[in-house]
Amino acid sequence: MTTDPVPAGADPRRLLSDVRTLAHRVRVDQRVTWFALLVLAAVTFVGIPFDYYFLVLRCVGDGTGCQFSRQGVLYYWPPALLLAYAAIAVCYLRVARARGVGARVLPYALTGVGLTVLFTAAWIAARMYFPTHPQQFPEWVLVLDRLIAPWGTIGVALLVLARLERNVGLLVFTLGYLTVALVPIDFGWHWQGRDDTAFLPQQIVNGTVLLLGAIGFALAGRRRR
């Protein structure tokens, strides 16, 4: 920022252009996008063993009727995401303070917290209801389920961050991430023939996309400097 006086005869259009350029530089200086994506990638990868060891798979008879429950989603993801959003908010605020600019990360963090509470309540309700009311769902219901799952809410919150930062690159990345997260990916991979590993490919892909995004935004930020 500058405190130099503006010449009285300055061209208004040039002044407006300078103000817009300065505002854009401030918005760019506010961004620590790579750190947010890195934290979310780490949370996704660390969640894999929790999802695996707390997964419940019970089959009866010839295996045609099975109960599948990802208990790790409730044991791990709510506290992990709350800590992740807190860490991201603290990092943004510290970087903004060091650079002498403002930070607009709190609406993103609060959105993430709200979505975490929403998905936790939805999954608890489903856990209580569906074991005694089994039924088949149309595909759109399954897509909605993946959207309110932790990996889906990560993408929804990132849309808010992209809007706050006016970051077109993050918007495009987030739309790509949501496409990957909402489309079931398993490549027919069942480790050692076990159905309880069917979630692994999707979660690994989700984490890898976030990690690659963190690397890409970090390299882009370094080139700008």
Describe the model.
This protein is mainly α and 225 residues long. It has one domain (29-224). 69% of the residues lie in helices and 5% in strands. The chain is built from nine helices and two strands; from the N terminus they run ααββααααααα. It has helices at residues 12-30, 33-53, 72-75, 77-99, 106-129, 139-147, 150-165, 168-182, 200-224, and strands at residues 55-60, 65-70. A two-stranded antiparallel ribbon has the order 1-2. β1 and β2 form a beta hairpin. It starts with 11 loop residues before the first helix and ends with a helix. The model is unreliable at 15-29 (pLDDT under 50).
Question: What is the secondary structure topology, with strand pairs?
Answer:
Layout lengths: L11 H19 L2 H21 L1 E6 L4 E6 L1 H4 L1 H23 L6 H24 L9 H9 L2 H16 L2 H15 L17 H25 L1
Antiparallel strand pairs: 1-2
Helix pairs in contact: 2-4, 2-9, 4-5, 5-7, 7-8, 8-9
State the gist of this model:
The chain is mainly alpha-helical.
